[in-house]
Amino acid sequence: MTSSPNPTPHQTQGLTADAITRSGVLRIFIARQILTMDESLPTATAVGVIDDRIVAVGDLASMAPWREGRDVLVDERLKDMVLMPGFIDNHVHPFLGALLTPMEIIAPEAWRMEGGRMAPAANTPERYLELLTARLAARTDKTDWFISFGYQPSEHGRWTRAELDLLCPDRPVILWQRSFHETYLNSAAIDKLGLTPELIGNHPQVNLAEGHFFETGNKLVMGRLMPYLLRPEWYHRGLNVTAELMQQGGITTAGDMLFGAMGAEYEFAALDACIEKPQRPLRIINIADARSAANQAIGKQVMGVPTDCPPFAKGLVAIEALRTRESRRVKFSKAVKLFADGAMFSQLMMMNPPGYIDGHHGEWLMSPEVLAKGVDVFWDAGYQIHVHVNGDAGMDSVLTALAAAQERKPRFDPRFMMHHVGFHTNAQSRRMAALGAHASVNAYYIHALADGYGRLGLGQERADQIVRAGSMVRNGMRVSLHSDFMMAPMEPLLLAWCAATRMTKSGRTVSPQECLSLDQALRGITIDAAFALNLDHEIGSIVAGKKADFTVLLDDPQALGAQGLKDVRVAGTVFEGELHMLSTPMASSLSVPLTDRSAHVTPLSRTHSLQLTGIDLTGPMLAQDDLVANALTVSANRYRPVAGGCCTTDGDPCVFLRQLGGWWGGSLNGPQSKTFI
Questions:
Q1: What is the DSSP string of 44-102?
Q2: Contact (CB, 8 A) for 479 and 524
Q3: What confidence tens digit (pLDDT) does each residue in 420-471 have?
């Protein structure tokens, strides 16, 4: 750091670290390049900040008028780096991250964790066994739970109750499936949770002999395990890890797109303990879950079937009260979240003809009638509305509700937001734009799903066209990018790479006409992401008057181009004028050298035979695309509606979280009466 040259009487040659936080000090950040994401002044080399606000953007000479009569600090620590507006992920689930990140992560993909360490990928039964054994050995307290997230039978081999009992006869073990809502337990875990045959009865989604609990059967596990996961030593650790992952990704603002689903008071307390604290360079924007708020207002915990219409008017009153409770880092948007159809990962999105190749059908999360009622109530109250929608039939239901609301009570700039947008048509893009809608999309779908869905589910034409971001931009819509954590890593530059390259796991570029340009992709994690949260007047670009939020990069995204976005290294962030550097700059998880990761493709028809104290993990392993197809075949057969009035889940974290409160059988808003296990 250096002081400004030729200081005025009010300027200081050597301001201390304490002095620069004093109100009124002008701090000028110098950078190699500043990408402002503002069309009027696209680039700069200096940005002036007083307190938490930007006061000037340009070069050092242009700051002269602001320097007169002020204490000035010219901060040159970033002079060799690139600044962008603080990245924004407008659709995450901090609650889910808090539950899952403390688990031992052993998944098919490499996963970044606290401190920047990578949880390596496990793509073969041998590698899974190696990592599982090592993690078990490292946890010496055999009375405590061992819970591992990321198990995928198609890639990791057979691990049911019998195999787990042979490996771990004397400690409770749970393998959490990658889809979030399946678990495999050994006998010690089943006994510890009291999951007796009498309790389970003939539940259609429990195989007690194999220790397998899936869909609504998993609520038997969750209901007894939740007190353990909600202990501060678990949950607060996980929320802190989640916040750290945001910082590693360069995120300064995240939208919690489901606040209150698990209980507002518990969530408030956790956010206060883990987010609203010094040295946390992050703000959370809460968007209330309309259905949960409405149901909880009448004391109802279980979500109900898609045709159950909650008392949205009562939910509106409850949400109005929540919005008064803000702090520096925890804010509320005058907005709500609604749902249309099911998830992409489980192929439960509602599809128009020709539908799915195998003839199965998707599921409504809210029937079109219930969705329309929710839109009406919150539209009339002047709220921004965010809707989870994945299939083209689901999109029709949302557009019908929006069109009816616009006809009945026209609104200008409603910023009606479509979230995820797995598959829709060009005709729907035109109608979305005409009705004032915009989109926040999960571009990771392209990378993760397009290859497999071409053979199973949609056919190549439609699979290659998922997430039509390009057509939406061509129709004048604002398109932003989100992770839906943990559906994708909280790495905005990786999401921008997915949207700009449309490259699948196999290396194909699909529907290149739908690629975003480099500029559009970067807008999707900055100014257009702010637009989606109705905060583009405050954040999203480096402009005088806005919050001083910046992402510090070691590399220039414009120089590396669209193909290099996943390799750009995040060095730190500036949050409301305060600099927070990472100990080590970090590129995306897909940029990890191959020597540090397991191979992504296993030779076709390769056979593995492992023996460990009687465990037989023998089974054919297929090439990556076939693994995807195999996993989806299992999903298509399993994720079907459950008879007998059970509430189904569909693999989407939004739906999963909404179920947890009801599954536990208690309110997180009141005193905890359950016994920790």
A1: EEEEEEETTEEEEEE-TGGGHHHHTTS-EEEE-TTTTSEEEEPEEEEEE-HHHHHHHTT
A2: yes
A3: 999 999 999 999 999 999 999 999 999 989 998 999 899 999 999 999 999 9
